[in-house]
Write a structure and sequence with these properties.
Radius of gyration: 22 Å
Mean pLDDT: 86
Low-confidence stretches: none
Helix content: under 10%
Number of strands: 8
Distance between the termini: 53 Å
Strand order of the largest sheet: 1-2-3-4-5-6-7-8
Structural class: mainly beta
Length: 189
């Protein structure tokens, strides 16, 4: 991004791994819901660099969150036949983890100011997906290709220092937009 007299970069990174167990329930010939529960691990890393802001020549901030916790949700699918379906998925998690931050600013006179800290926090996570899916039935399960729109938000997951003291500010981490996915659901009998 760029503002008057300054140039900056934002480099977010997000990884999430879900381990879920679910129960598929049919509500008629064309409607089904999969209720699921399990655990989630999430890692969020946000690096911000701004050159030429205010009296500081360079400002950098590194914020990290690593969390683990329970997760549950439901996936609704309306089948159109021949493997095609429209779906809406929801999920939520409650993650416990460590939020860390490091900031530094360098003025034109060469004065460096730095802050850092960490705290253990509880982060609620919500997600929703809406899209189209094609499922191919295989001998040991189903292979599904889906495309749609996704929204994910981790509440108060990122923290940053305000001063060299203990005061911090928090912000959400969220992503939304189009996505494409591939999923295999195995049959256990």
């Amino acid at each position: 991004f760029s503002t008057t007299g300054s140039v900056g970069t934002i480099d977010p990174k997000w990884d999430a791994v879900n381990l879920e167990f679910g129960q598929h329930v049919d509500f008629g010939d064309m409607t089904n819901i999969r209720f699921h529960g399990g655990v989630q691990y999430a890692r969020i890393n946000g690096d911000v660099t701004i050159n030429g802001i205010s009296s500081a020549r360079r400002f950098t901030m590194d914020r990290k969150f690593n969390g683990f916790g329970p997760r549950f949700g439901a996936d609704l699918s309306l089948d159109w036949g021949n493997g095609f379906a429209v779906y809406g998925d929801t999920g939520m998690a409650m993650l416990v983890g460590k939020s860390k931050f490091n900031t530094s600013s360098t003025t034109t006179a060469g004065v460096v100011t730095a802050t850092s800290g960490s705290t253990t926090i509880i982060v609620p996570e919500l997600e929703a997906k809406l899209g189209l899916m094609y499922t191919y039935a295989m001998a040991q399960g189903d292979l599904s290709l889906d495309i749609g729109w996704m929204f994910v938000n981790y509440f108060n997951a990122e923290h940053a220092g305000i001063t060299s003291g203990t005061a911090t500010q928090s912000s959400d981490f969220g992503v939304q937009g189009p996505y494409i996915g591939l999923k295999w659901v195995g049959n256990v009998a």
